[in-house]
Amino acid sequence: MSESSDDLGDFEEFRTDEVSAPEPIDWEKQLARTLAVANDDDSHTERNAVRFHPSQLARCPRQATISKFGLEDHDTETLGVFQIGTLVHEWLEAELGGRFPGVHAEHPVQAEYRRPGNSGVVEVVGTADVYDGHDGVVYDWKTRGGWHKFDPPSERHLDQLTLYMDALDAEAGQVVYINKKNLEVRTWPEDGTFAFDPDRRDELVKQAFEMRAAIKDAGAIETVADVPFEPCGCWLCGQEDPHPDAGGGSDE
Questions:
Q1: Are residues 237 and 60 in contact, defined by beta-carbon separation less than 8 angstroms?
Q2: Contact between residue 229 and residue 214 where contact means Cβ atoms under 8 Å apart
Q3: Kind of pairing, strands 122-132 and 137-144?
Q4: Pairwise CA distance, residues 126 & 156, whole Å
Q5: Which domains does the chain have, with CATH numbers?
Q6: Does the pLDDT at position 15 exceed 90?
Q7: Distance CA 20, CA 18 (A)
Q8: CB within 10 Å: which end of the chain, N or C, has fewer?
């Protein structure tokens, strides 16, 4: 039975009617919001002159102060990098934390220092990634996006680990670098540990006392403009500076 031209016209009209498509989820916006909520802005905030985290004293005085007072302004890309690193740390802690007797993951540290010629104290607080209390070794996990420009050791990584070692009275340490793409591991030193260096510790404590004095003299620090230290040319200060030719460049 043949179709009439009227029937065919109705069919064509039905097929060409436009149906509005559902609006898709804006994943970029949702992830940005989620990262902003997940980021703990106050995890390293110490709004005083005397308390520092090891990761802060491993930075220049300006960047240490910006971190101490919670003045870092991270974009979504940076927050994403932090979040992936956090997830890797949490997974490692869950999977390996209780596997070795006498080894403690996420071990709290606290130390108080006095210095000849200076009144009062400075405090160092934080959390060591892994502390082997049996052998006296502290391990610090560092996640990376790959091995481009990988040239350990980073001085700031050694500074940070030295403060953990001192607070825990550990004689040795190792930096454990982990590729976030495939969990490949490289360590420094490659086949062992490095010994605690009291001279490096003393230099870091000296810096902490100098920062304490400058922060006290500065008064209220509520914005980056209040920070009593100028950009020094390190890679973190270079990222902060809006002028690309101001120097800097990541060591990692």
A1: yes
A2: yes
A3: antiparallel
A4: 15
A5: 45-246 (3.90.320.10)
A6: no
A7: 6
A8: N
